[in-house]
Amino acid sequence: MQNPAQKNVAQKTQAPLTDYLLRLGDSALVLGQRHAQLCGKAPALEEELALMNVGLDLFGQARNWLGYAAELMNDNVDADHLAFRRDAQDFRNLLITEQPNGDFADIMGRQFLFDAWHVHLLDGLTHSSDPRIAEVAAKSLKEATYHLRRSSEWVIRLGDGTEESHTRMQRALDNLWQFTGELLQVDEIDQAMIETGIAPDPEAIAARWKATVEEVLEEATLERPSYDAWMYTGGKVGHHTEHLGFLLAEMQYLPRAYPDATAW
Amino acid sequence: MYAQLVETGSNKLKTLDEMSPEERQFQERINDEIKIEPKNWMPDAYRKTLIRQISQHAHSEIVGMLPEGNWLTRAPTLKRKLQLMAKIQDEAGHGLYLYSAMETLGADRDEEIDKLHDGRAKYSSIFNYPTLNWADMGTIGWLVDGAAIVNQVPLQRTSYGPYARAMIRVCKEESFHQRQGYQILLTMMQEGTDDQKAMVQDSINRFWWPSLMMFGPSDENSPNSAQSMAWKIKRHSNDELRQRFLDQTVPQLELLGCTAPDPDLKYNEETGHYEFGEIDWQEFFDVVKGNGPCNRERIEARRSAIDSGAWVREAAVAYAAKRQRKAA
């Protein structure tokens, strides 16, 4: 049972909060789906386990965020409906999460740039004025902390490994960099969340993201592209890259092909 | 069975009198149900047979991830996606500790994996069948893991300690997978649409016979069984295990409201067992020899994962060496 004050906040922020939860949930879901695509393709058996582990964490987080979003929508939808019945333009995930798997440097580069943001965001969300968000964030933070440790280690290993791995890691970083602007971008939805104390101070997250990225890239002997480089944004408002449509076509195939099926 | 047709290098059993003193001590230890541990003396043929069997088992876990991975990206709900991903992860884990058990016998994981990739080592033929609809994720759990459990439960008492202990953990997880698989089918049969029910029946039609083949050839065509039984690497005959599997599975099939693609399947009141039709052993041997629907594809997928990751492993080694030099 909510207390009246909380209910008030929820009513006032319902639409932006729902959107904000979709952003969190969709990013986890889409990146989780990229991990599902990697099944059986890891460079070593230990990595197979680790990739599945990260994927499981992300799907679990997606289920929590989307479940909450569905409750707020109160439109007879549930987390599965949000995951499997929405079209690309309704997805609110960050563009970096939908980028294709490519080689192991692309996979680890994508993961690292995301994790370095995710960890600091989740850390901030543990102090959210919304207790449910704080609770999910606390659980997710433990997982994301492990993800960041692992992806940092791989970026360092590949960056400072062989000439080939260094070249590949630098190329991955250069290609993915254009999607990092969106991690730090603040729009009116974010602003509404910050004002109600639901989301943390974006300045602090940006500073911590940069510090983590700089520290790891330096140890990895990789060159950091410029923060002033042109940035590709739009995922948070439903303007995606071409890759998302195919990812969803595959992921949503069964519920779309059998719309009358209510149980699987 | 996850390890099938394991060569023992011997078709004739030695009596205790024909054995050397070491062999005799070894056999008596086995007869007394005392586990053989890595540092104990063991006949070369026992070691080689076990390496073959455990590596086949490990390879089966790893290759077995592929037909399920085929539907992981298309799992229809978040719950099913999480379950399937966790199951596949368990399989990678089983592979890992089976390879570790194998290494206690002096074998090298990379060498054994090379043998898989160049066709010298076998893995369970069941994974050479394609997964063509979502119900296959249920059927694999129910029938394939079910058959594997019937095979593996006795292996928890197998004579080689590290293998027996690995099997205890594997069996616990497999039982969980089997229940989950059956649940997928039951949900579709009880709450599903006609399309979903048709998927389930189609899936059972395709996996029924290959599942029965998982126990290996009939006892009279299983020349290596006697030695494996004497060594207690194997504890029951292929036919005995197949019968046990069938007896437990048919009532579950009936509960689903599905049928088996076997007109001769019937219950024998007198024996208390189910009887079944003729298994197509030609198909079994064809698939074992490499001529199954997905043999080439499965091996190519495994080889490609390892080959295309070579630069990653080289980088990890190079980085570790750099670190070591810095620390020195």
Automatic annotation (TrEMBL), chain A:
It comes from the Bacteria. SUPFAM superfamilies: Ferritin-like. Gene3D superfamilies: 1.20.1260.10. InterPro entries: Aromatic_CoA_ox/epox, Ferritin-like, Ferritin-like_SF, PaaA_PaaC, PaaC. Signal peptide: none annotated. This is Phenylacetate-CoA oxygenase subunit PaaC. It comes from Vreelandella zhaodongensis (Halomonas zhaodongensis). The lineage of its organism: Bacteria, Pseudomonadati, Pseudomonadota, Gammaproteobacteria, Oceanospirillales.
From TrEMBL, chain B:
The gene is paaA. InterPro entries: Aromatic_CoA_ox/epox (IPR052703), Ferritin-like (IPR012347), Ferritin-like_SF (IPR009078), PaaA (IPR011881), PaaA_PaaC (IPR007814). The keyword Oxidoreductase applies. Pfam families: PaaA_PaaC. Its EC number is 1.14.13.149. This is 1,2-phenylacetyl-CoA epoxidase subunit A. It comes from Vreelandella zhaodongensis. Keywords: Oxidoreductase. GO terms for molecular function: phenylacetyl-CoA 1,2-epoxidase activity.
